[in-house]
Amino acid sequence: MIDVLVLDVNETLTDMEPLRDAFEAAGLPRHGLEEWFTAILRDGFALTAVGAYPTFRDLAAELLAAQLVAAGLDPSPETVGNVLSGFTRLPLHPDVAPGLHKVHEAGVRIVTLTNGAAAMSENVFRNGGILPLLEHRLDVSVPQRWKPHPDAYRYAAEVCGVPVERMALAAVHPWDIDGAARAGLRTVYVDRRKTPYPHVFRTPDLTVPDFEALAESVQEKAK
């Protein structure tokens, strides 16, 4: 049994598929979403590794502008802003709200920790009915280290006032699972797509298909 469940946000809680519509509206191919999001993470990780701190929005905007230019399109601030604003309107995956309500009922504290800005997801969580369940909505602007740097997870532990070993991170990204494990947290891999877990990363303590299955595990341990 853990005291605090730490949740990744982008893709773990939110369904990013609607951003493809924004890409299409900007003149970009729908499949460009993967290239863009992967590039944001790549460059955020790289800058963190050398001790720099880029904001998610600044990095996302610059990489999107570069993608527009490469496609022969106008990288206007309006076009870039329209795509980025889509993050504030993303839906939650269907399993998130029912699963997290059960986790909360079991007495586990819930917080989010994102490499993006915490404010970007407030309406998403409110519209999805989980905002009241979240004790804290954290981002990496304070430690100025993107996950999977250990300082990001330690920051969450400091805010919650618990040892890292009393926390668990739930995420769909193996790199996030690995970073949390190395920082001392327990880990839950949310494997909605039935994707083989890469053996180069530390093995998660628990693998579940969705948050409802995670809730069942938490409730069982709470008995």
Automatic annotation (TrEMBL):
GO terms for molecular function: (S)-2-haloacid dehalogenase activity. It comes from the Bacteria. Its EC number is 3.8.1.2. Keywords: Hydrolase. It is an enzyme of class 3 (hydrolase). Pfam families: Hydrolase (PF00702). InterPro entries: 2-HAD, HAD-like_sf, HAD-SF_hydro_IA, HAD_sf, PGP-like_dom2, S-2-haloacid_dehalogenase. Belongs to the HAD-like hydrolase superfamily. S-2-haloalkanoic acid dehalogenase family. PANTHER family: HALOACID DEHALOGENASE, TYPE II (AFU_ORTHOLOGUE AFUA_2G07750)-RELATED (PTHR43316:SF3), HYDROLASE, HALOACID DELAHOGENASE-RELATED (PTHR43316). This is 2-haloacid dehalogenase.
